[in-house]
Amino acid sequence: MMLYLLHGWGFNAGVFSGLTEALPCAQALDLPGHGGAPYAEGDWDLARLADQLAARYPRPAAWLGWSLGGMVALTLALRHPACVDRLALVATPPRFTAAPDWPAGVPTQTLAAFGDNLVKDPQGTLKRFLALQAGVSDRAVIRRLVDNLKARGIADARALAAGLAVLRDTDLRDELASVRCPTLIIQGEHDRLVPMEAARYLSTHLPHARCLPTGSGHAPFLSAPAAFTAALQDFLA
Q: Of the residues 67, 85, 156, 223, which is catalytic?
């Protein structure tokens, strides 16, 4: 069975190089405006993006999404269940921003500040985002993420802004019960962007889900690659 990998905001398919080397069945995809993939206005409408992926990869497969890529994968599972045989969600919340009924989110002011700074200083904004993801104690992960950006370049500024809008506006909580495929939720216990509460919510509201906590930050496939790959292989088997 093929395994398709969807990266998070600001990155590209290269961030999964360790997984694609370890798993012959894995193929990492560049989302619109990232890693050299073209971007057109409207590409980051989640429903439209899911429809495009389903048209391109119509056969049943396993899908893994990291952070924003997880929201894309969830939308694909909701709109095109025949395409998604298994679903792995890594550091993926059903809603990214905080709300009165959702304290497990990033304050909207924080996300708005990223959007404002993105226009003035794209590189600096991405570096600050890296620090939030890995934390100051995990410098090796920060280096890996920085190397990914250096190797394939910064994403299209329009795509970055559109991705932030998706993070700001998306709320998939009311639709989770419709996801019928087996789902693995991998969540770092020291994630500074997506807390464990979000993963627990997913595990109790997705009908066929289990949660795997890891002692890592926002990118467990980089901070503990061997354990991450083993858990993923077990899930796919």
A: 67
Whole-structure pTM over 0.90, yes or no? yes
Closest residue by Cα to residue 220 from 228, 232, 211, 210 = 228
Among 81-85, 150-154, 172-176, 230-234, which is the least confidently predicted range? Answer: 150-154
Q: Could you confirm whether 67 is annotated as catalytic?
A: yes
Active site residue 218: yes
Please give the domain boundaries of the chain with CATH numbers for all domains: 3-236 (3.40.50.1820)
Rounded-to-integer distance, Cα 2 and Cα 232, Å: 13
Supply 173's token pair: 């909580």
Q: Which of 156, 191, 216, 223 is catalytic?
A: 191
Catalytic-residue membership of 191:
yes
Give the CA distances from residue 8 to residues 101, 169, 174, in Å, rounded to whole numbers and listed in that order: 25, 16, 23
